[in-house]
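Peptidoglycan/LPS O-acetylase OafA/YrhL
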Amino acid sequence: MQKERNFGLDLLRAIAITLVVVSHLTYVFVQESDHPIILMIRTLGAVGVDLFFVLSGFLIGGILLKGIENDRTRFPDLITFWKRRWWRTLPNYFLMLLVNIAIYHLFTKELPIDIGSFFVFTQNFAHPQSEFFTESWSLSIEEYAYLVLPLLMFCVLAVFRTNGKLVFLYTTLSVVFVAFLLKYQFYLNTEILTYKNWSGMFRKVVIYRLDSIYFGFLLVYVMRQKMDFFKRHKFKALVLGGLTFLAVHLSIFMLNLQPELHPGFFVFLYLPLISLSCALAFPFAVHMKRSAGFNPLVYFVSTRSYAIYLVNFSAILLCIHYLIDLETAALALKLVLSVVYLGMTIGISNLIYNYFEKPILDYRDRNIR
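Structure:
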C-alpha cells in the first residue's frame, strides 16, 4: 500500500495536519492572546487547512483530468466519481457529527439550534457557522467543491463534446472568476471589525472559498502541461513559494495590516497568495524520493490525517475545556493535559482509521471502480 502512494504528497498532508494540531494545542495554555508566537502558531494552523485545500484540489482535479484524457466523461462516470468521494469523506464526517452531538448534549443538556444544517452541509454555505463542530466548516467547502465544478464540466462536455482539457481549464477559470465576483460583493457590502469576524464571515464560508480548492485544479493542469519545466525548476518553485509566504506575513507584521483597516488585502489577496505559496511546493513534493527513516511516520500521519482533523478539536480539546478550567489551571497541569490531548488524538484517530475508515475504503475500492 505504501509503495502506491506518493511520498511527497503524503509529506504535505502530514505537515498540514501537524500545523493544525499544534495550533489547537495552544488553546490548552491560553484562549485569547496577542503574543506574537501564539499568533504565528495559530496562523500556521490556518495555513495547514489551506494546504489541505490545495492538496485536495490537486488530487481530485488530477482524477477528473485523467478521466477526461481517457474519455470517461459521461454522467455515469460522474456518478462513480461522486460515489467514490462520498465513501471517502462522508462516513467519518457523520460519525464525528454524531459524536459531537452526543458530547454537546452531555455537557449542555441541549441540542445545537442549527443541527439540521450540519447534515446537509449548509451550516456555513453563505453565512458564519455556529461554534458547534467548528472544524466542519472546511468539510462543507470540500463537498460543494466536489459537486459544483465537476457537474459543470460534465454538462459542458455533454453539450459540446469538444476538447476535454480546454473544458477543464476554462470551466475552472470561470468558477474562480465567479468566486471573485462574490468576494467583490462581500467587499462592497460587509464591514469587517476584527480578524475573528473576517475569519468567520469570509474565510470559513463556502461561497467565498471554493476557489481555494480549484486553485489545485489549475495547479495540476499547469503541471501536466509543463511537466518537464516544473521538474527542472522544482527547487526554485519551492524557494519562491517560501519567499512568497514570508513576504506576505512580514508585510502584515511590518505594515500592521488588519482586516478592519485593509479589507481589500484580506478579501482579494491574502488567501490566494497563501494558496499560491502552498502550490509552489508541489513540483518539488511530487518528485521527492522516499525516505527510509521517515516514510513509516509520514505514512502513518498522512493516512490518519482525516480522522485526526475531525477528532482533535471538538471531540477531545473541547471536552478538556468542559471538564477543567484551563484559565486557572497550573502550568504543570496544562503540560500534562497537552500530552493527554496529543495522545488521545493519535490513539482515537488510529482506532477510527483501522476499524472504521479503512474497512469502508476497502469496501469502496472493491465495489466502486
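The mean pLDDT is 94.
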